[in-house]
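## retry 2 of 3
previous attempt timed out at serialization; input unchanged, resubmitting
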Amino acid sequence: MGACGKVAAACILGVLGASAQGAARAAELTILTNQGATPGVRELAAAFERATGHKVTVIQEAGAALERRLASGGPADLIASNPGPFEDLVKRGKVVAGSATPFVLAGLGLSVRAGVPKPDISTVDAYKAALLAAKSIGYSRGCSGTHIAEGIEKLGLTEQLKPKTKFTADGPVVEFLAKGDFDVGIQQTNIMVGAPGTEYVGPLPGFLNVPCPSSVALVASSKEPEAARAMIRFMTSPEAAPLLRKTHVEPAKL
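## retry succeeded, writing output
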């Protein structure tokens, strides 16, 4: 962590303030995340646990499952998600107004099924040629999928690629790629790197690499709001940046 060197825990406590150092008991926090935020949140949660003694459980939950948890009052202290849902969650009293804070940006990348030759995607023209040459392409309908489709449209390839494009449902694109559902998969880099049965090729070039942002917010029903707010402070601190970069994302520019 930069100048912090080997005393990372002390640096984290400095960010969190005296309340974290003098906590009378360890809090138990539950963070609900979407798929794209999960790798970074897990990395930060582990560091926060080591520094504070608090226990942090990270649960990947979105869509209907997230709605059921919030409706049932199940354990939840923080939500990490694309920014879009937070306005509605605040209106419904599920998230504390003013607490949503950007913390990460996840760029887009391309992977191939293991055994498939890696294409050149180092330039926009090379990426365009790689898509045209691919036998089949897969991506999701979420944030990354929206940005990928917009990029394909800007390249003038929407109609040409439509017959060989498959949209994934639940789960990372790389899971379907590894099973052989298609030969080329595109999604957020942090979800793709190191996935079994696949090989990461690299980030999308130039203007095509539009990152997906994630924010973190305090759940209104949190039983540990002080510890949860401390977690938000850490997640958006300079000390968190190198931990996030380990998971192939960039810290949000606040």
